[in-house]
Amino acid sequence: MMKIIDFDELFDRKLAEYMEEHVGEHTEKQWEDLIPKLYRKFGDTVLKSIGTTPKQYYAAMSDDELVCALEEHFKQEVAVSDFLCREIESRCCPDALLKLMKEAEGELLTLTVNLAGSSRKALPIYLDILTTTEDGELKDTVTEYLKGNADAVKERVLALYREGVEREYMLEILSRCKQRDDEVFNILINEFRTAPDDIPMHASYLASYGDERALPALLDYIDRDETNYLEYQELKYAIEALGGEYTKVRDFSCDPYFQEIAAQSQILPDFTTEKKTDA
Description:
Blueprint (H helix, E strand, L loop, with lengths): L6 H15 L6 H16 L10 H6 L3 H13 L6 H9 L4 H9 L2 H11 L6 H10 L3 H12 L2 H13 L4 H8 L7 H13 L4 H11 L5 H8 L6 H13 L14 H9 L15
Helix pairs in contact: 4-5, 4-6, 6-7, 8-9, 9-11, 10-11, 12-13, 13-15, 14-15
Protein backbone atom coordinates (compact mmCIF):
# COMPACT_ATOMS: atom_id res chain seq x y z
CA MET A 1 0.00 0.00 0.00
CA MET A 2 1.19 3.51 -0.84
CA LYS A 3 2.70 5.35 2.11
CA ILE A 4 0.59 8.39 2.95
CA ILE A 5 2.51 11.17 4.68
CA ASP A 6 0.83 13.91 6.68
CA PHE A 7 3.06 16.78 5.61
CA ASP A 8 0.79 19.33 7.27
CA GLU A 9 1.25 17.62 10.63
CA LEU A 10 5.02 17.56 10.12
CA PHE A 11 4.94 21.26 9.30
CA ASP A 12 2.82 22.03 12.36
CA ARG A 13 5.42 20.32 14.56
CA LYS A 14 8.28 22.28 13.04
CA LEU A 15 6.25 25.48 13.23
CA ALA A 16 5.55 24.93 16.93
CA GLU A 17 9.28 24.48 17.57
CA TYR A 18 10.12 27.58 15.54
CA MET A 19 7.53 29.70 17.35
CA GLU A 20 8.83 28.54 20.71
CA GLU A 21 12.38 29.48 19.69
CA HIS A 22 11.25 32.93 18.53
CA VAL A 23 8.61 33.68 21.15
CA GLY A 24 7.96 37.40 21.56
CA GLU A 25 9.78 38.36 18.36
CA HIS A 26 6.68 38.83 16.20
CA THR A 27 3.23 40.28 16.60
CA GLU A 28 0.16 38.19 15.80
CA LYS A 29 -0.20 39.98 12.46
CA GLN A 30 3.47 39.35 11.62
CA TRP A 31 3.02 35.63 12.37
CA GLU A 32 0.01 35.56 10.02
CA ASP A 33 2.20 36.92 7.24
CA LEU A 34 5.20 34.74 8.11
CA ILE A 35 3.53 31.32 8.42
CA PRO A 36 2.63 30.99 4.69
CA LYS A 37 6.24 31.85 3.81
CA LEU A 38 7.51 29.22 6.24
CA TYR A 39 5.13 26.68 4.70
CA ARG A 40 6.48 27.38 1.21
CA LYS A 41 10.02 27.05 2.53
CA PHE A 42 9.07 23.76 4.19
CA GLY A 43 8.01 22.47 0.77
CA ASP A 44 11.59 22.85 -0.43
CA THR A 45 13.18 21.41 2.72
CA VAL A 46 14.73 17.92 2.59
CA LEU A 47 13.14 15.78 5.31
CA LYS A 48 15.35 13.04 6.75
CA SER A 49 12.41 10.66 7.17
CA ILE A 50 11.82 10.48 3.38
CA GLY A 51 15.15 11.72 2.01
CA THR A 52 13.56 14.38 -0.20
CA THR A 53 11.43 17.51 -0.05
CA PRO A 54 7.61 17.44 0.11
CA LYS A 55 7.44 18.96 -3.38
CA GLN A 56 9.90 16.45 -4.84
CA TYR A 57 8.09 13.60 -3.10
CA TYR A 58 4.98 14.24 -5.20
CA ALA A 59 6.81 15.39 -8.32
CA ALA A 60 8.38 11.92 -8.58
CA MET A 61 4.95 10.25 -8.74
CA SER A 62 3.08 9.32 -11.91
CA ASP A 63 -0.34 10.82 -12.59
CA ASP A 64 -2.06 7.66 -11.39
CA GLU A 65 0.02 7.57 -8.21
CA LEU A 66 -0.81 11.18 -7.42
CA VAL A 67 -4.54 10.67 -7.76
CA CYS A 68 -4.32 7.41 -5.82
CA ALA A 69 -2.52 9.32 -3.04
CA LEU A 70 -5.30 11.91 -3.02
CA GLU A 71 -7.93 9.22 -2.64
CA GLU A 72 -5.96 7.45 0.09
CA HIS A 73 -5.66 10.68 2.07
CA PHE A 74 -9.45 10.76 2.28
CA LYS A 75 -9.78 7.06 3.03
CA GLN A 76 -7.24 7.30 5.84
CA GLU A 77 -8.58 10.69 7.00
CA VAL A 78 -5.19 12.34 6.58
CA ALA A 79 -5.06 16.03 5.70
CA VAL A 80 -4.39 16.71 2.02
CA SER A 81 -1.36 18.99 1.77
CA ASP A 82 -1.16 21.94 -0.59
CA PHE A 83 1.94 20.30 -2.12
CA LEU A 84 -0.11 17.36 -3.35
CA CYS A 85 -2.85 19.61 -4.71
CA ARG A 86 -0.44 21.89 -6.56
CA GLU A 87 1.34 18.93 -8.16
CA ILE A 88 -1.94 17.48 -9.42
CA GLU A 89 -2.94 20.89 -10.79
CA SER A 90 0.37 21.13 -12.65
CA ARG A 91 -0.46 17.90 -14.54
CA CYS A 92 -3.33 19.65 -16.44
CA CYS A 93 -6.22 17.45 -15.35
CA PRO A 94 -4.86 13.91 -15.75
CA ASP A 95 -7.25 11.17 -16.83
CA ALA A 96 -6.95 9.52 -13.43
CA LEU A 97 -8.40 12.65 -11.82
CA LEU A 98 -11.39 12.54 -14.17
CA LYS A 99 -11.96 8.89 -13.32
CA LEU A 100 -11.91 9.68 -9.61
CA MET A 101 -14.25 12.63 -10.15
CA LYS A 102 -16.86 10.29 -11.64
CA GLU A 103 -16.74 8.09 -8.54
CA ALA A 104 -16.12 10.62 -5.76
CA GLU A 105 -18.66 12.12 -3.37
CA GLY A 106 -18.78 14.93 -0.84
CA GLU A 107 -15.60 16.83 -0.05
CA LEU A 108 -13.48 14.61 -2.28
CA LEU A 109 -15.71 15.36 -5.26
CA THR A 110 -15.52 19.09 -4.56
CA LEU A 111 -11.74 18.91 -4.35
CA THR A 112 -11.40 16.99 -7.63
CA VAL A 113 -13.50 19.66 -9.34
CA ASN A 114 -11.35 22.45 -7.94
CA LEU A 115 -8.19 20.63 -9.04
CA ALA A 116 -9.52 20.10 -12.57
CA GLY A 117 -10.57 23.74 -12.77
CA SER A 118 -11.54 25.02 -16.20
CA SER A 119 -10.03 22.07 -18.09
CA ARG A 120 -12.13 21.27 -21.15
CA LYS A 121 -11.63 17.57 -20.48
CA ALA A 122 -13.73 17.92 -17.34
CA LEU A 123 -16.69 19.77 -18.92
CA PRO A 124 -18.83 16.68 -19.71
CA ILE A 125 -18.45 15.50 -16.12
CA TYR A 126 -19.31 18.97 -14.82
CA LEU A 127 -22.61 18.80 -16.70
CA ASP A 128 -23.26 15.37 -15.18
CA ILE A 129 -22.55 16.79 -11.73
CA LEU A 130 -24.76 19.83 -12.34
CA THR A 131 -27.72 17.64 -13.25
CA THR A 132 -27.34 15.11 -10.44
CA THR A 133 -25.88 16.68 -7.29
CA GLU A 134 -28.03 18.20 -4.54
CA ASP A 135 -25.12 20.34 -3.34
CA GLY A 136 -25.95 23.95 -4.23
CA GLU A 137 -22.39 25.21 -3.78
CA LEU A 138 -21.03 22.47 -6.03
CA LYS A 139 -23.66 23.30 -8.66
CA ASP A 140 -22.51 26.93 -8.58
CA THR A 141 -18.84 25.91 -8.83
CA VAL A 142 -19.24 23.71 -11.90
CA THR A 143 -21.57 26.28 -13.47
CA GLU A 144 -18.83 28.90 -13.28
CA TYR A 145 -16.43 26.61 -15.15
CA LEU A 146 -19.12 25.76 -17.70
CA LYS A 147 -19.91 29.44 -18.25
CA GLY A 148 -16.26 30.03 -19.06
CA ASN A 149 -16.52 27.37 -21.79
CA ALA A 150 -20.12 27.97 -22.84
CA ASP A 151 -19.61 27.56 -26.58
CA ALA A 152 -17.89 24.22 -26.07
CA VAL A 153 -20.88 22.78 -24.18
CA LYS A 154 -23.67 24.67 -25.97
CA GLU A 155 -25.21 21.72 -27.82
CA ARG A 156 -25.57 19.54 -24.75
CA VAL A 157 -26.79 22.48 -22.66
CA LEU A 158 -29.44 23.20 -25.28
CA ALA A 159 -30.52 19.55 -25.17
CA LEU A 160 -30.79 19.62 -21.37
CA TYR A 161 -32.74 22.88 -21.52
CA ARG A 162 -35.22 21.36 -23.98
CA GLU A 163 -35.64 18.41 -21.61
CA GLY A 164 -36.41 20.81 -18.76
CA VAL A 165 -33.32 19.82 -16.75
CA GLU A 166 -31.97 22.56 -14.43
CA ARG A 167 -33.28 25.20 -16.83
CA GLU A 168 -32.11 28.25 -14.88
CA TYR A 169 -28.55 26.92 -14.77
CA MET A 170 -28.75 26.12 -18.49
CA LEU A 171 -29.93 29.66 -19.23
CA GLU A 172 -27.06 31.07 -17.19
CA ILE A 173 -24.55 29.02 -19.20
CA LEU A 174 -26.16 29.82 -22.57
CA SER A 175 -26.03 33.53 -21.76
CA ARG A 176 -22.23 33.32 -21.82
CA CYS A 177 -21.98 31.93 -25.36
CA LYS A 178 -19.81 34.16 -27.55
CA GLN A 179 -20.87 32.74 -30.90
CA ARG A 180 -24.22 34.22 -31.96
CA ASP A 181 -26.98 31.64 -32.32
CA ASP A 182 -30.63 32.42 -33.10
CA GLU A 183 -31.87 29.49 -31.01
CA VAL A 184 -29.94 30.68 -27.96
CA PHE A 185 -31.16 34.26 -28.42
CA ASN A 186 -34.77 33.17 -28.87
CA ILE A 187 -34.61 31.05 -25.71
CA LEU A 188 -33.19 33.92 -23.65
CA ILE A 189 -35.66 36.51 -24.95
CA ASN A 190 -38.66 34.17 -24.58
CA GLU A 191 -37.70 33.32 -21.00
CA PHE A 192 -37.44 37.04 -20.28
CA ARG A 193 -40.88 37.71 -21.73
CA THR A 194 -42.61 34.77 -20.04
CA ALA A 195 -41.11 34.97 -16.54
CA PRO A 196 -42.65 38.10 -14.97
CA ASP A 197 -41.59 37.04 -11.48
CA ASP A 198 -37.90 36.92 -12.36
CA ILE A 199 -37.31 39.86 -14.69
CA PRO A 200 -33.99 41.01 -13.13
CA MET A 201 -32.31 37.61 -13.55
CA HIS A 202 -33.47 37.10 -17.10
CA ALA A 203 -32.56 40.68 -18.02
CA SER A 204 -29.05 39.96 -16.74
CA TYR A 205 -28.85 36.93 -19.04
CA LEU A 206 -29.68 39.16 -22.03
CA ALA A 207 -27.03 41.65 -20.91
CA SER A 208 -24.44 38.86 -20.65
CA TYR A 209 -25.34 37.47 -24.07
CA GLY A 210 -24.80 40.88 -25.63
CA ASP A 211 -27.28 40.75 -28.54
CA GLU A 212 -28.73 44.22 -29.16
CA ARG A 213 -31.87 42.66 -30.66
CA ALA A 214 -33.07 42.38 -27.06
CA LEU A 215 -33.25 46.18 -26.66
CA PRO A 216 -36.90 46.68 -27.78
CA ALA A 217 -38.17 44.13 -25.25
CA LEU A 218 -36.03 45.59 -22.46
CA LEU A 219 -37.15 49.16 -23.25
CA ASP A 220 -40.78 48.05 -23.27
CA TYR A 221 -40.54 46.40 -19.87
CA ILE A 222 -38.62 49.20 -18.16
CA ASP A 223 -41.26 51.73 -19.22
CA ARG A 224 -44.16 49.83 -17.68
CA ASP A 225 -45.83 51.39 -14.64
CA GLU A 226 -45.75 48.09 -12.73
CA THR A 227 -41.96 47.80 -13.01
CA ASN A 228 -40.53 47.97 -9.50
CA TYR A 229 -37.26 49.59 -8.47
CA LEU A 230 -35.18 46.40 -8.45
CA GLU A 231 -36.44 45.44 -11.89
CA TYR A 232 -35.81 48.97 -13.14
CA GLN A 233 -32.20 48.90 -11.96
CA GLU A 234 -31.41 45.58 -13.67
CA LEU A 235 -33.30 46.52 -16.83
CA LYS A 236 -31.45 49.83 -17.07
CA TYR A 237 -28.13 48.06 -16.65
CA ALA A 238 -29.02 45.55 -19.37
CA ILE A 239 -30.12 48.30 -21.75
CA GLU A 240 -26.89 50.22 -21.27
CA ALA A 241 -24.80 47.02 -21.57
CA LEU A 242 -26.35 46.49 -25.01
CA GLY A 243 -25.58 50.04 -26.11
CA GLY A 244 -29.05 51.46 -25.48
CA GLU A 245 -30.28 54.29 -23.27
CA TYR A 246 -33.29 54.98 -21.09
CA THR A 247 -33.56 58.57 -19.85
CA LYS A 248 -37.16 58.88 -18.65
CA VAL A 249 -37.31 60.13 -15.06
CA ARG A 250 -39.21 57.68 -12.83
CA ASP A 251 -40.52 58.26 -9.32
CA PHE A 252 -39.94 55.23 -7.07
CA SER A 253 -40.42 57.05 -3.77
CA CYS A 254 -43.45 54.86 -2.93
CA ASP A 255 -41.76 51.62 -4.05
CA PRO A 256 -41.03 49.32 -1.05
CA TYR A 257 -37.75 48.11 -2.58
CA PHE A 258 -36.60 51.70 -3.10
CA GLN A 259 -37.60 52.63 0.45
CA GLU A 260 -35.71 49.66 1.90
CA ILE A 261 -32.55 50.45 -0.06
CA ALA A 262 -32.80 54.14 0.82
CA ALA A 263 -33.19 53.30 4.51
CA GLN A 264 -30.08 51.12 4.41
CA SER A 265 -27.99 53.78 2.69
CA GLN A 266 -28.77 56.76 4.89
CA ILE A 267 -26.10 59.44 4.55
CA LEU A 268 -23.81 59.14 7.54
CA PRO A 269 -22.12 62.11 9.21
CA ASP A 270 -18.82 63.07 7.59
CA PHE A 271 -16.26 62.68 10.34
CA THR A 272 -13.38 63.29 7.93
CA THR A 273 -13.98 67.04 7.72
CA GLU A 274 -12.00 69.02 10.25
CA LYS A 275 -14.20 70.80 12.72
CA LYS A 276 -13.52 74.49 13.10
CA THR A 277 -12.73 75.55 16.64
CA ASP A 278 -12.47 78.96 18.22
CA ALA A 279 -8.95 80.26 18.49
